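In practice, a research group might receive sequence data for several interacting partners and want a quick structural hypothesis before committing to experiments. The following worked case mirrors that situation: the sequences arrive first, and a predicted assembly follows.
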Amino acid sequence: DTGVSQDPRHKITKRGQNVTFRCDPISEHNRLYWYRQTLGQGPEFLTYFQNEAQLEKSRLLSDRFSAERPKGSFSTLEIQRTEQGDSAMYLCASSPTSGVSYNEQFFGPGTRLTVL
Amino acid sequence: AQKVTQAQTEISVVEKEDVTLDCVYETRDTTYYLFWYKQPPSGELVFLIRRNSFDEQNEISGRYSWNFQKSTSSFNFTITASQVVDSAVYFCALPYNAGNMLTFGGGTRLMVKP
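A structural hypothesis for the assembly, expressed as tokens:
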């Protein structure tokens, strides 16, 4: 399978705990994006990387959120001191910067976070 | 500011009916792309089409067709002879900031009944 993969698919945690999600993009894609989707809404942009550089962060990304892409391949999204409002689907996408699929974002299956 | 509006939150049709999903957008960019994605119950967003604002020709792909009208800032999506497998949430999206981030509409939930 050469698509975008995310791990875990589901995470249930208690309020105040830290959680970390992983995203593995399509191997030749150098752009990687994180989005958050709450029930009944469209995805909202959180942050994106070009290679290992984090180039943009949304105002939605509070200080409790941190994302990394240390070697320009996989990425992690960590949420510290989780709150019930963090419950959502966290989607990862990747895109190439050239070729016929330029700027097309390919999405992974998402990680559904439930904060109790 | 970028904005995408999908006024229809939910549509229900019977199999084999045609259905059109509306998308209206706002952008200050003079050139831009527009996207449609499908999100089936499994949750994964599936890319359907990318459209360049230069090209206002309608596009057809099998049972799917798209009507792009720059004058009315609309990019509507029609499914002909709908099937139960078309049941999903459909999102229209508009990139901003040099195409690096997508602004999504609120989505239209399509239910196709047998």
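Before designing any experiment, note the following. Chain A has no helices and eleven strands. The longest strand of chain A covers residues 88-95.
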